[in-house]
Design a protein that fits this description.
This protein is an alpha/beta fold. It is built from 5 helices and 15 strands. The protein has helices spanning about 55-60, 85-90, 170-180, 200-205, 210-215, and strands spanning about 15, 20-30, 35-40, 45-50, 70, 95, 110, 115-120, 125-130, 135-145, 150-155, 155-160, 160, 190-195, 200. The strands form 3 sheets. It has a 7-stranded mixed sheet, with helices on one face. Strands 8-9-10-11-14-15 form a 6-stranded mixed sheet. The protein is globular. It starts with 13 loop residues before the first strand and ends with a helix. It comes from Streptomyces incanus. InterPro entries: MBL_Glyoxalase_II (IPR051453), Metallo-B-lactamas (IPR001279), RibonucZ/Hydroxyglut_hydro (IPR036866).
Length: about 220
């Protein structure tokens, strides 16, 4: 079936099948958070992005093969409610942005900086540090050698605009980071946000000046 990226809490997961990577998207919790399970097709190693909520659903999605790693995109509480249980059940190594790790109540094994590589089997993800929604938010870019890039943006980019900021300087910082580190990717780049539907950079790029003008 064709991947749509539309998932609902309590509903079925949606699976994006790439040549080297399988991406399973599931919605969990009262804030409709997205969690993404990445599976290297060559090695079957798995990595989870955001153990946001509902550990039973996440562990059921992970299955008996477990996960090697879990990445928390940022420190806001709705993105790590299930982290302790998932780590306890799987023994996964934890990753988070260096400047957000102190705000996550599960110890971070790997502090992530801009440009760092996180591996899942033979697949490489590149971290992009984006300041504004939180001080240490990270996006993860998978530059698919067989197609277009894929980027997991946490709460830094959604269909229709950047993530929430509370101060004008935070908004300017987030917009600057997005334009310098994310919108340099091609229009075909698929965007997987922390809540809601997916989008592409091509769909969002025409609105950058509109977002800057409105200030959110």
């Amino acid at each position: 079936m064709t991947y749509s990226g539309r998932v609902t809490v309590g509903g079925s997961a949606d699976v994006h099948e790439l040549k080297d990577l399988m991406i399973t998207k599931v919605a969990v919790g009262p804030m409709d958070n997205n969690a993404y399970l990445l599976r290297c097709r060559a090695t079957d190693e798995q990595l989870l992005i955001d153990a946001a909520n509902d550990a039973d659903t996440l562990l059921g999605t992970i299955g008996d093969d477990g996960i090697a790693s879990v990445v928390t995109t940022h420190r806001h509480g709705d993105h790590w409610q299930a982290l302790a249980r998932v780590v306890a059940a799987t023994g996964a190594r934890t990753h988070a942005g260096r400047d957000d790790a102190e705000g996550i109540p599960v110890p971070t094994d790997v502090l992530v900086d801009d440009g760092d590589t996180i591996r899942v089997g033979r697949v490489e993800l590149t971290a992009r540090h984006l300041v504004g929604h939180t001080p240490g938010s990270i996006a993860l870019v998978y530059d698919d050698p067989h197609g277009h890039p894929h980027v997991f943006t946490g709460d830094c980019l959604f269909p229709g605009g950047p993530g929430r900021t509370t101060q004008p300087e935070d908004f300017r910082s987030l917009m600057g980071g997005l334009e310098a580190k994310v919108f340099t990717l091609p229009d075909e780049t698929w965007v997987y946000p922390g809540h809601g539907d997916d989008t592409t950079l091509g769909d969002e790029r025409p609105h950058l000046e509109e977002w800057r003008a409105r200030g959110w």
